[in-house]
Amino acid sequence: MQQEAVQRNGGRLLLIPFPLQGHINPMLHLAQILHSKGFSITIIHTTFNAPNPSNYPHFTFCSIQQPLSQTQDFLDFLLDLNVKCTTPFHDCVTKILSQEPVACLISDAICYFTQDVADTLRLPRIVLRTGALSSFLAFAAFPLLRQKGYIPIQDCKLEEEVTELPPLRVKDLPMIKTEEPEKYYELLHRVVNTTKNSLGVIWNSFEELESSALKTLSQEFSIPMFLIGPFHDYFSASSSSCSSLILQDQSCISWLDKHTPNSVVYVSFGSVAEITETDFLEMAWGLANTNHPFLWVVRPGLIKGSKGLEHIPSGLMDNLEGRGLIVKWAPQQEILAHSAVGAFWTHNGWNSTLESICEGVPMLCMPCLSDQKVNARYVSHVWRVGLQLEKGVERGEIERAIRKLMDDNVEGKEIRDRALKLKEEAKLCLEKGGSSCSSLEALVTYISSFTFQAS
Ligand code: UDX
């Protein structure tokens, strides 16, 4: 996206991301999109996982101090953040409001603590939901799913269909592993309710992709919905990496340049998923046995209880003769846009899923937790642009699935064709008159109405 010479007359917006990579990326993209429409931007962020202000000289950054650490249990981290950030956030916003008028607050849906603060300060609050509408529908259905006995999940019912949320099966419900499920239900209840009580929801998705979920949600939520995604497609692949918390290893690109089109499997599980050492070894052998080159992101912390690559089978990489490249963190969007990449083995975080859809790269789905499970089911059974590993992580199944996606066969070709078609739809929605382009115009008008009230 070009930084247009736009007059800053849209008013000031306060944006607060949830401090994990998969949430920071879309929030900072949204900030850039709204800045290009004439709004002034202040990012309020935690000191933990703080974005780099020097990558955004045109924004103001305000940091709120709080003792957070991601080393604790994931659920406790989410709950803790919502408690510890309330007072510093209130103080920060109060100070900003004493200096200049603010049009509205845009808060990540997971930061539900912002609702009370916004209400107290009479600040209009819009929510950014960084995930898909389809997974949010499943979160919103938790009370019903509990009432109907789908949740808590029983192992004997994993394959059963959830008739209220087709095509989900019980095992596709967005659960996390926790000893304290009540805490998780309470968290979802708060996220869903404070989203419902906001003045509108911005989605990093597009209407053509999720029309059915949009219809249902619009009936359940009587607030405006703005589907203005895919956010990252407003920017060039190389320029949209400013929000990366980890340095991206650019050596992958020259390595990819040496490979023929659609020959490489790209493997990455995002910023929070963990796998066991046993699964890691099956993955390594499965990849090696396909004979396709692979580029694999193994970030520190991916393998439970390990900091690095000490579990790579001795000799495996040597025997591959350069056919495999492992890096700690990669320029993912550039990789997915590279002609050498023929498939993406992903955990189906929403950003990864959407980035893959936008590049027409078929997916091998291996969801680990929460919304990833819903996303994977939609990829394999609604949009049908990928396959899901259904029988655990086993080298034979991995090899078969990758061959199906990449080699010459009818099913693989159909998946690849659908992926290319969906890529075209994603491109069209951002063009003038396209659904996301029109929705963005509507959002700008909507926010500007708050500006009028505030000034
Ligand atoms: C988390 C949740 O796990 C996910 O389910 C939810 O939808 C969003 O928040 P994460 O696991 O990090 O996100 O996955 P994802 O949503 O895919 O986001 C990862 C981001 O990091 C993507 O934008 C991706 O391009 C980027 N990335 C990933 C890199 O820049 N380099 C890498 O090597 C890997």
From TrEMBL:
PANTHER family: GLUCOSYL/GLUCURONOSYL TRANSFERASES (PTHR11926), UDP-GLYCOSYLTRANSFERASE 76F1-RELATED (PTHR11926:SF1374). CDD domains: GT1_Gtf-like (cd03784). This is Uncharacterized protein. Keywords: Transferase. It holds the Pfam family UDPGT. InterPro entries: UDP_glucos_trans. Gene3D superfamilies: Glycogen Phosphorylase B (3.40.50.2000). GO terms for molecular function: UDP-glycosyltransferase activity. Coiled coil: none annotated. It comes from the Eukaryota. Belongs to the UDP-glycosyltransferase family.
